[in-house]
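Hi R.,

Here's the input for the guanosine-5'-diphosphate complex you asked about:
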Amino acid sequence: MNQAIPSKGEAVVVKHTGSHYLLSRLPEWNVFPAVIRGKIRLKGSTATNPVAVGDRVDYIFEDGMGAITAIHPRKNYIIRRSANLSREAHIIASNIDHAYLIVTMAFPETKMAFVDRFLTTCEAYGVPVTIVINKTDLHDEVLEQMAGAFRGIYGGAGYELLEVSAITGTNVDVLRERCRGKISLMSGTSGVGKSSLIKAMDPSLELIRTAEISQAHLQGRHTTTFYEMYPLATGGFIIDSPGIRGFGLVDFKKEELSTYFPEMLRVMDDCRFKPCTHTHEPGCAVKAALEAGTISPDRYYSYLGMLEEENKYR
Ligand code: GDP
Ligand code: ZN
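And here is the predicted structure with guanosine-5'-diphosphate in place:
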């Protein structure tokens, strides 16, 4: 703490440590601790953590400690289910300007089910998202072919893709530029090169992975995943997420799911039945597009898988 903290005002949650929160009056980076005063849970929220990284809050500050007195309505947020077969939800970050889902054609393997769950979550909660293919320096003919197929599927669905390499620096400047003046979420399974990429964007950053959470733990009910916001030297803030699994939509209606697939949303107006689940209904425009090859079968199977999974929660 190098400057005095005004005794009250508005700030953003940049970290949750378990016992308290760290706040900063963004875009100023001057972090101070705070606890929650009283009951400030947002109305209607089922989330287990009342305050998330990215939340704008009102605070008062005295004797070196802040107190969060109110939480502002969220522009958007990303959520995941707390545990398998649980309806409990955990907000992992809020007020995100842009999400970057980092994947790789090399190691670790990219699971489409995971990618699609992440993308639909972003659609459902109104977070713009770009898919970042990292480790392109490793691309030989086979990996390049895989990348081509991947680009075909997701580019075709309407997503923006960016191919980078944290090692050679390819397109790292593009990513850095895109993050300027924004709050960006960096996501992806562990090992895809998130920390390497963030380091490449800003070598001065010291990433601290507060809780590298084991697979076993992640299945547990009371796991807390610690997300943390960092300032980029070139401007903007990134939220680093520990490797995530079990990402999931919460409480979507069956008829709604296809609206979170942009390529389905584009054609579903032409389905004969409304609402249409695009499974058994005659005159379905989504199935017609599938047959015509304009909707990827892989994406459609992901959709079916998610519908099926949703059934388990009912
Ligand atoms: P994180 O778990 O997503 O933060 O991944 P790390 O940044 O720790 O990277 C995981 C491994 O991938 C490390 O061995 C990195 O050196 C390697 N790695 C990260 N980015 C690249 C890249 O662009 N190219 C290559 N060849 N390896 C990379
Ligand atoms: Zn349909």
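One thing worth noting: Residues 268, 271, 276, 278, 281, 284-286 surround zinc ion (ligand 2) (CB under 6 Å).

Cheers,
M.
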